[in-house]
Write a structure and sequence with these properties.
Three copies of one chain form a homotrimer. With 278 residues, chain A is of the alpha/beta class. Chain A has two domains: 6-227, TIM Barrel, CATH 3.20.20.60; 232-276, no CATH class. The first copy, chain A, has helices at residues 15-19, 42-59, 77-80, 99-113, 126-130, 132-136, 148-155, 164-180, 195-207, 220-227, 232-250, 265-276, and strands at 6-11, 28-32, 65-68, 90-93, 119-123, 141-146, 183-186, 212-215, 256-258, 261-263. An eight-stranded parallel beta barrel of chain A has the order 1-2-3-4-5-6-7-8, surrounded by four helices. In chain A, strands 9-10 form a two-stranded antiparallel sheet. Chain A is elongated and about 70 Å long. The mean pLDDT of chain A is 95. Chains in contact: A-B, A-C, B-C. Chains A and B meet through helix 5, helix 7 and helix 8 of A and helix 8, helix 9, strand 10 and helix 12 of B.
């Protein structure tokens, strides 16, 4: 999977929004049948999502398109997976709590739709986070996201601006995705009226090892792309560092003083990674 | 167990304090034979605790009353458990490091007192925190507390005002209690002369998922009750949110703009939880 | 192992620096064949390190002297371990990811050099940190260090001044070393031009339970010794506390009001530990 800096949600019950979902240029889109759709509207949402996928695919031939179904523990799941077609890139499965859930969902979809789908697994309960590594390394899982709101609800805690209450859980999801070698989507920023909040939160997410961010508003997409890319200043510094380091190596030195910082192999590789990312 | 926002300690060696222990209205009281009692006074403390329990029970028929015994690894434990009577709600067992400790303590008490007691387990060593989930899910454990001072002593670290040194351990205890579905008591605030410190620390504890706080002074009890309850502003906001969300659902919308924030199912449930708690 | 507050690295490819490595009075020195030595210079570095060890040992008969070899997964490892002699205190093995690595390295060195060496294991990848406890408790491991730069590179994250991206990993390393009862070396501070940065970072490391710090510049050695020792103010307070606590115990009290703080057994022991450390 190439780097997915943004995955933009669209509510399944809003056909007019689904049709426009790719316009802000997200790296992936997710048509939502779960939390954004009230119980009474699940059936209508399924119809809207099913109708929306073919034109979205035609207009965006290479865009990763996902549907988020309801949790396998709900009565909606069985009907939701009827939406699976070969136009989809995969399924976003929320509130996954064990590898068994992935197996069951995969079998159910194979049976119904005759397709072996890929999954992005939602880790958004205490148990799901505790089992993050075994879920992330399950067959068919190509990414995970951390769902902070659901996690804190399940934990019985309180969401704060500082976010200490999710630091461990967020770290576990990033670490588990790294061990599995898959994409890691950082938590939603619900406060979509504040770009500053998003940028700050995305910056922390990037430092923790996430590869991108779930977005719930088109305005967040460019912010995510910028947050999960190297800044010009970072690239400039990396280029200077690599040049200085290369010269030192020809003198037999592998630990150098670069602008007051000791630079050796890992820092040189971090700089190279930044250069390679642009 | 109903919500226990405060559990107030009284030193076993101070009979005059034990008698007054329920006056500040704590959700539970703990008569301490362990850290608050010096070695030379253990025997006197046992007598004082044994004498204090019946009148406390008579005056407070429904109050959870616990005795904290010394660790099962000490020579005092065997005598301490003679204090167990049917008037007690259970035993607080400090420095638990494995589920085996719970089994052994339970058997010993059943043998001596003929009663199967419930335990609140103290997780306050590195090993105890590492084994938190298996301890919290042991038979008979109805709550755990995190003991920051003992934990940091065992770790060989230093206690700081910021508390980064206990963030992981504190998180593990809250998470393990959530997995077990039991009460989670947050760390003591030793600085009882500063209400601000207590309120700030309790606020973090609540955000991390703790259900209440250990108190070492009667003045901390009302602070704990306030800290582990929803504020009027939180309740007001929750009521507005639920009303707006309910209206939107009748229009088939499940993700709405509420005062600049995207609100969907998990946030609506968090709001409902706040309303239900008052 | 007595307390090692500092372990100073010297680049294997800089013989003039190796010769002076003990001058700043570090508690241990590490002659580096790994990250501080570029690939083309590995062979020369081995010769320089081999030549440097005997005079360093003669001049500093009791100083712990270590060589950091290249990772067992590299082609350099087999040649590196030829540097092992009875003059060495042990080997620093970087990027250890499992107990198996320790076994393999130990066998390889025993076969080549006929010596059973002790190891300081570098935990500096995601997998290494996840397996920290099993590595730290492996036979022959007498210490571990946390390598923040390599860890974050492996994680795919970004190093920040605040360091939230390493808090969990750093905590795991300290906790694992405590469970194993071995030395724990905190992360390098690469910014050697800023004593403030070092002091601040070392203070956090000490609070998290580390026993000392890796140093990459002689100027960091006295800073580490100071940071990992009790301050005069800490010692003064500890002496006052112990005196007050002892008096209270003769009155049968085990939980006292000491300068506005409730002090009982764990806090008294923390104070005693501070007094014992000077």
């Amino acid at each position: 999977m190439t780097s997915l800096r943004s995955a933009l949600f669209g509510p399944g019950s809003r056909p007019e929004l689904l049709a426009k979902l790719a316009r802000s240029g997200p790296d992936a889109i997710i048509l939502d049948l779960e939390d954004a759709v009230p119980p009474d509207s699940k059936e209508n949402a399924r119809l809207a999502v099913t109708a929306a996928i073919p034109p979205l695919r035609t207009l965006n031939p290479t865009l990763p398109i996902y549907v988020r179904v309801n949790s396998i523990t709900t009565s909606w799941f069985t009907d939701d997976i009827q939406c699976v077609t070969e136009h989809l890139s995969g399924i976003v499965l929320p509130k996954v709590e064990s590898p068994e859930t992935i197996c069951l969902a995969r079998s159910a979809i194979e049976e119904r739709a005759g397709i072996l789908v890929n999954f992005i697994a939602g880790l958004e309960t205490v148990l799901g986070v505790v089992n993050a590594t075994s879920i992330a390394t399950s067959n068919g899982v190509i990414g995970c996201y951390f769902g902070a709101e659901d996690y804190v609800l399940d934990l019985g805690g309180i969401r704060t601006r500082e976010g200490l209450e999710v630091l461990w859980a967020r770290t576990q999801v990033a670490v588990s995705c790294r061990l599995a070698g898959i994409a890691a989507f950082d938590q939603v920023v619900t406060d979509f009226s504040s770009p500053e909040t998003f940028v700050q939160d995305a910056s922390i997410g990037r430092s923790l090892g996430f590869s991108g961010k779930l977005c719930i508003h088109p305005s967040q997409v460019p912010l995510a792309h910028s947050a999960f890319s190297a800044t010009p200043a970072e690239v400039d510094r990396a280029l200077r560092l690599i040049e200085t380091y290369a010269k030192a190596r020809t003198r037999g030195e592998g630990a150098i003083n670069f602008e007051g910082q000791m630079v050796d192999e890992p820092l040189a590789r971090q700089a190279q990674r930044i250069i390679d990312s642009v």
